[in-house]
Design a protein that fits this description.
By secondary structure, the protein is mostly beta strands. It is built from no helices and 24 strands. The two termini are 36 Å apart.
């Protein structure tokens, strides 16, 4: 059965829900991963996975332009970020390499080939046998790169590296320690640059002795200070993202199946908006039904 992605828009107060692009199916019936939306919501990017390599597709949401880069990305591609409205930076690493190395590639609408940028090596505090997981994110200015490394039931570390600079990367955050008697788990990899590239926001989520906790941190890259912005107890934030100004966080929350907070029912989700300045949060799209996980991204107006 063909799969269709529909793009909706809604105001931050929950009013005005409407289909943003009429009868426009952006995703074909293929194995698609890593969907992304540009800062102003005019373009999308996604990977189409194949057995040995993947295609990357950049497309205007209104359907006016599409560029497909066929079989140029290995299955080791971790994720990507938009830089502007028409280009993405892809993070690619060799999973057989125990070193924490990543190669950056730039791909843009209307161009025929990806442009190689550079390969960067970050420190690693987790032994290879513990299956470390690594995530990357380039700054809005395109001059710095973040790397978050963690493993199941181990603390995570966040590093920053200036591109095209001989100076080594800096450790700017390590996740808190928790002492649990029954069960311990933590979700990582959610972090966001500020628009000016001077601070980083990070969401740390843990489940310890049956208690869920979400902490939003803000990290200052100048003095390396760490500030706790908001804490949300007794709720697992499954998927979400920051607004372009980092003042709000928008996330999906789903009912759980069988009493487990780790197995949400993705077919019934509600969209929430959280103020990172006041801690107030509210449901803006209630009980939205879908056949798979949903993606929400606040866009700049």
């Amino acid at each position: 059965m063909d799969r269709t992605s529909l793009f909706y828009s809604v105001r931050s107060d929950g009013t005005g829900l409407q289909l943003a692009s009429e009868a426009f199916s952006i995703l074909p019936a293929e194995d698609v991963r890593l969907e992304g939306v540009s800062p102003h919501g005019t373009s999308v990017a996604y990977l189409i996975l194949h057995e040995n390599a993947s295609d990357l597709v950049l497309a205007k949401v209104d359907g006016s332009q599409t560029t497909r880069f066929p079989a140029v990305i290995s299955r080791n591609a971790r994720n990507f970020d938009f830089v502007g409205e028409e280009c993405v930076v892809l993070y690619e690493r060799d999973n057989s390499n125990p070193l924490n190395q990543v190669t950056l590639k730039r791909l843009c609408l209307g161009e025929n080939e990806p442009q190689a940028m550079e390969t960067i090596e970050f420190p690693s505090q987790i032994p290879p046998e513990n299956n470390p997981r690594r995530f990357y994110r380039i700054s809005p200015q395109g001059d710095k790169l973040l790397n978050y490394e963690y493993a199941l039931n181990e603390n995570g570390s966040l590093y920053v590296k200036t591109l095209s600079d001989a100076e080594p990367s800096r450790l700017i955050f390590q996740s808190p320690n928790r002492s649990c008697t029954s069960y311990w788990y933590q979700w990582h990899g959610r972090f966001q640059w500020s628009p000016d590239g001077k601070t980083v926001d990070l969401l740390w989520t843990s489940l310890c002795d049956g208690q869920a906790e979400n902490i939003f941190y803000q990290l200052d890259l100048q003095d390396l200070s760490v500030k706790t912005r908001v804490m949300i107890p007794n709720l697992v934030v499954n998927a979400g993202t920051w607004s372009p100004d980092n003042r709000e966080f928008v996330f999906w929350y789903s009912p759980v199946e069988g009493g487990s907070v780790t197995t949400p029912d993705w077919t019934i989700s509600s969209l929430y908006r959280l103020s990172l300045e006041t801690g107030a949060w509210a449901k803006i799209v209630p009980e939205f039904y879908a056949e798979g996980p949903m993606f929400a991204r606040p866009i700049a107006q």
